Each structure stands twice: as structure tokens, then as C-alpha cells.
Amino acid sequence: MHLTTKNCSFQSPLKLLALALVLILLPSCGTTEQQDDSLRIGVALYAQDDTFISALTQNLEWLAQEAEGETGLKINLFISDGRSSQATQMDQVDRFLARQCDVLCVNIVDRTAAAVIIDKAEAEGVPLIFFNRQPVAEDIQRWDQIYYVGASAQESGELQGRLVLDAWRQHQDLLDRNADGILQYAMLEGEPGHQDALLRTEYSIKALTDAGVEVEKLTNDTANWTRAQAAARTKQWLEEFGGEIEVIFSNNDDMALGAIDALKDSQWEQQDWPLIVGVDATAPALEAVASGQLYGTVLNDGRGQAQAMLDLAQALWAGEDPAQAVTLEDGHYVWLPYRLVTQDNLERLREQYHLLTREPLPSG
Ligand code: BGC
Ligand code: CA
Q1: Which of 54, 111, 149, 194 has most ligand 1 atoms within 8 Å of CB, for mutation?
Q2: What global pTM score does this model have?
Q3: What is the pLDDT of residues 99-114, one digit of tens each?
Q4: Phi and psi based region of residue 267 (left: phi greater than 0; alpha: psi -120 to 50; beta: remaining)
């Protein structure tokens, strides 16, 4: 059985779940017969229920459908859910290779495990596009048919810091609650070891200290990118530090929304909330920016990343020079820029980046 972009596009949480179930059963590229007239892309996700990753995947499906319409080329996307297990993902990659996928897109569970996947793909001559979870440079250099599509983690940290710096400069009287001239903060961190967790944590604060703002870290902890864990952490912090926290930095939007959940749950008046900033620009986060609950976020261009993956895959499949299809750095990297999002530019960016504004309606 083939899952094509037409019959496996998912549009609602229910369909997503149904798709996930189908994919657990069928993490392969279909039959063993080679189909020369179609491009078969195996897409190995680290965890399909991750908000940012599921939006990126949805864009990939929409863009593949669009490309099919424009070029007449049949594009089959085969999507597997690694469920945060590198062992599970290895099996899925093995199956994609055994079933002769033309290109693999890998959102690797464990960033340090890339060498094994690279060696397998190279042995089969199947080009690899890593995305969102960045393998170390030495692994990317192992073979010339390896690519990474993503966005600079450092840049996202710097932009988030700039968001807070601007707020501090414009409204220090409001932000500096205890009027000591120091910015007291809490940091909600993503998964340990993820490049975005490490560098966003570091560079958001560096943007402030480089600009001469004195900061004091009251507390920090990982909430593994997830809303529920962030809500639990923030709840504890509110009990421990109460109104002392002036800013909550969150490595992504889901965790920022978790902090908001905790504030609501603890019956805090919105005017007393600390300033909260995230990264991603997911649909619910944009709603929170619009309503003023989230001060701002940094747009992680999942649609742009999906487009780059697709353009690369098509070029590699056709035997064309990938540098003609995408802007390549050092022969391997495609970097999509981040953008600041505040209430002021929200609507413009929504249009420009085709941002999802809500959970799409079920099709059909
Ligand atoms: C996103 C997070 C996401 C993570 C998954 C990051 O770039 O900002 O929201 O959970 O990637 O790898
Ligand atoms: Ca202060």
C-alpha cells in the first residue's frame, strides 16, 4: 500500500492520531517495486506530537501537493513517528531504505546518533536531509550527499533577548517591579542537549548583558519543549518566587503557553503577570500574542524549512545541482532566517509567512 500526499494529509488532531496509527503500522516506502515516475521521500520525525514539528509536516504535505500540481511529478511522502526513541527511528530508517526511498528527511531523535544513519544511507546511495535537530558538524561532513535544513539557534536566542531588551528600555518602570535596576528572570528550557535549548538559553541572556542590562537568574529548569511540563514548573516557581519574577524566557512557544496556563490556574490577574516570551510562532502562540498574554515570539519558519526540504529532495532526485535549488552554505547547510513577532507586526507576518492561525478544519 502506498501512502501518497493525497490520501495521507492530516488536518485535525483526530486525523493526526489516525495517521500516526497508520504510520506506526506502515513505516515504509510502500512496495519493493521501484517506481521511476515518482519521487519517494521517507520522512522520519522525532516525535509527531511536537507542535512545531507537526505544523512543519503539515506544510510539507501541502507543499508537496502543490508541487505535484505544478510539475506533474508524483511525490509520495512516507512519514514515520520516532516517538522520541532513537531505536524506533533506526528501524524506521532501515525500512525506508529497504523499500527504496529516493531521499530521506530525518528529524533525528538523538543528535549524536547521526553517524549510524549516514553510513547506512551512504551504503545505499540515498541522499539525506536532516532538519530541525542538528547533527554535529563532523557528521555532516561525512558524505557530500548530506544536508541540514534549519534555522540558526543562536539567532533565535539573540532575537528573543532583543525583544526583552526593547521592552526593558521602553517600560523599565513597569518591568522592574522591585525597582532595583536588575532584571530578575526564570528560564524554561527545551530538551537537554538540543541545539535550540542550549543556544536560546545562552544568547537570549547575552543579548541583554551585552547591552549593559544587569540580570539575575532566579530559577531555570527543562520542560522538554512541552506545555504541561512547563505549566507544572511555573506553578512551583510562582509559589516559590511569587511576584519576584519579572520575565519568563521560554525556549519555545508551547512552554510559554504552559507558563500562561500556570498563571491562569493560580488566578493571577493578567496585569500582574511577568513578561513572557517564546520562540516558534505557533498558531496558539500567535493568538496569545494578539491578546497580549504572550509579549512576543520569534518566528521559526517551518513552512520555509519544509519548502527547502522539498526543493532539495526534488533536485537530488532529478540529479540536478542542489545549489541551484536552494541557497547552500558550506555545501551542506540551508539556513532559514528567524523573525521577531510582536503585536505590531503580527498580521503582516501571518500573511507573508502563511502562518497557521488556528487548527485547520477537517477536509472533505
Ligand atoms: C522548536 C521546538 C520544537 C523542537 C523540536 C525547536 O526548533 O522551537 O518547539 O519542540 O524544535 O526539535
Ligand atoms: Ca528588578
Answers
A1: 194
A2: 0.89
A3: 999 999 999 999 999 9
A4: left
